[in-house]
Amino acid sequence: MSFRMQAPVFRLLLPFAAGIFLYDVFPKENSQVLYGLAGLFTVVGVVQLLPLSWRWKLSGLNGIFFLSILLLTGFCYAALRDLRNEFDWVGQKEFSKQYYLVQIREEPKRTSSGWKITADLLARNDSINTERISGGLFLYTKEDSVAQQASPGTEAWIQVKPRPIVNKANSSFDYARYCRLQKITHQAYLSAPNQIQFLTPSKNNLPSLLHQTRTYIRTILYKCLRDSLHGGLATALFVGWKGGLDPELKQHYTRTGTIHIIAISGLHISLVFEMIWRLLFFLVYLRGRNVLRTSITLLVVWGFCFLAGGEASVLRAGIMFTAVQLGRGLERPVSGQQALGLSLLTLLIADPDWLFDPGCQLSHGAVAGILLLHPIFSSVGKIENPMLKNIWDSSCMTLAATIGTLPFTVYYFQ
């Protein structure tokens, strides 16, 4: 069976992703592209009104029209989701030292001179009125007390003057674009603690709840594993928090090519899925056991995905597992290629900038290499010995994943 037959979702994914890529390379005004999209829809509608003989003669153009519509749809969607095109984006406002309402996005990170806090802008107050504002910024501070209160989901009023993030002179790395893909375009400095006033967190705040849960799990792990080395490794494996990892240990994993073990991905999701699935064996005696067992397992898996930070590799694995299990429940099996395409298409609909995320590219590239190349490599030679066969099969899988990620590793790491 051909790859196209196994994964028809790629007929939608490839032109849609191409449109997102073209927007990043050649950004234009939304109206121009919308005119082109409206023109294509008009042409397709006119063709459908023609006599049957003419429609038969022009049937070869249907595919071109379909691909063009998907490509322009991807272009327009990327433009609509671009934060720089939003009417309340901070980059379209005048910069002055005013009060800004922000929400902390993630845990503060230690820098060489202090702390870096990632926050999302919510509103701006100029002592006369309060208006909505959007965008993200990095807050830099040297105060440990500020970093301790800046937990994810917490809101605060800050008195700063945001400045656009620009690239350093003579730097080959486009740091401004890298930050923009993370929805961060500005930065500000908190020189004194009185420049920030934290608000009481809401009880229904999901980011704050996830942070409290992760902190609780970390505390338990560090109590059970008193060695900080083992505790840091355990927290990285269980909740995706790498702040406690020993730098030397992390370097060892990098040198041996096993750093992916620390990063939560499909391996960890599969272990969680298999563990929960087996623990729910008693449900086989109930009516509707398959639906109930699958639903509970997928809920736990997605809870783990969000608890682990919702990175690209985690979401990719969660979507693929969901697609495969739903296909089994509906008795419509989903191939690995189809599940991979669905995961990438879902991520691009959620956020077009995922297309340029290195983690998303490496994760999907590795799985694509395994799905396409592993069957070919493993079929070379017939090994009868079970132990040697397992070693050969694992080696083929590693080689296939390496080839799948090779273009991205060459591009990013030379």
Can you walk through the features of this model?
The protein is an alpha+beta fold and 414 residues long. The protein has three domains: 3-81; 90-198, OB fold (Dihydrolipoamide Acetyltransferase, E2P) (Beta Barrel), CATH 2.40.50; 215-413, no CATH class. Helix content is 57%, strand content 11%. It is built from 16 helices and nine strands. The protein has helices at 3-6, 10-25, 30-49, 52-57, 60-81, 144-149, 175-181, 206-224, 228-239, 247-255, 266-279, 289-307, 312-329, 336-350, 358-378, 386-413; strands spanning 98-104, 109-110, 115-125, 130-132, 136-141, 155-160, 163-164, 186-190, 196-198. Strands 1, 2, 3, 4, 5, 6, 7, 8 and 9 form a nine-stranded mixed beta sheet that branches. A hairpin with a 4-residue loop joins strand 2 (109-110) and strand 3 (115-125). Helix 2 crosses helix 5, helix 14 (336-350) runs antiparallel to helix 15 (358-378) and helix 15 runs antiparallel to helix 16 (386-413). The longest helix has 28 residues, at 386-413. The protein is globular, with a radius of gyration of 25 Å. Mean pLDDT is 81; it is low at 1-5.
Short overview:
With 414 residues, the chain is an alpha+beta fold. The protein has helices at 3-6, 10-25, 30-49, 52-57, 60-81, 144-149, 175-181, 206-224, 228-239, 247-255, 266-279, 289-307, 312-329, 336-350, 358-378, 386-413, and strands spanning 98-104, 109-110, 115-125, 130-132, 136-141, 155-160, 163-164, 186-190, 196-198.
What tags apply to this protein structure?
single chain, 414 residues, alpha+beta, 3 domains, disordered N terminus
